[in-house]
Amino acid sequence: TQLLEQSPQFLSIQEGENLTVYCNSSSVFSSLQWYRQEPGEGPVLLVTVVTGGEVKKLKRLTFQFGDARKDSSLHITAAQPGDTGLYLCADPDPLPFGNEKLTFGTGTRLTIIP
Amino acid sequence: EADIYQTPRYLVIGTGKKITLECSQTMGHDKMYWYQQDPGMELHLIHYSYGVNSTEKGDLSSESTVSRIRTEHFPLTLESARPSHTSQYLCASSPPGGSGYTFGSGTRLTVV
After folding, report:
1. For A72, how many CA atoms within 13 A lie in the half-sphere containing its CB?
2. Pick from A45, A98, A104: CB nearest B50
3. CA nearest B10 in A: which residue?
4. Per-residue model confidence as pLDDT tens digits over B34-44
């Protein structure tokens, strides 16, 4: 099981600013998922990246998968208070019988100040 | 709207009580999971199922048990709750092909 390190651990910025958070591993990812978790709720899947160098956009969120598939970044443009939450990257590992176990990163707790 | 439901959302119980945390999904997914998340900590897999009558233990040792009698239902039971069981319990399911989990809203359990 590989370790996923996310940085920064905490980030607090003003509404309207841009930001980038990172997910890194010493091992190669087969694919990588990004989730956002709001207080008192379960994580919600934002995106899955599969191919090295891949870039996916979800409105103001841009996800990039490193060429070597050992890192990923999430960039938010013009952050809004609704972006506040815990951002988690997750590496799916196969389990027996076709299940997948998600190994989650340490998370970045993002606060957008109005 | 949620497609996976967990009840109760919050539960405070005394030590030694037996409890069952409910999880139901309406998506027809065969694969279901239970994760445990302590405040400010990572999520850890405690149980999973690949279909009716299948249950397997995850990475994190847990004194809880699960059952899967129906596709849509995956309850978790603690026979005798202890303060060390205080945590958030998250249920999830996934479709074939591994395109990500759908999580429930979780049950925050406090054992006093």
Report:
1. 35
2. A98
3. A40
4. 999 987 778 99
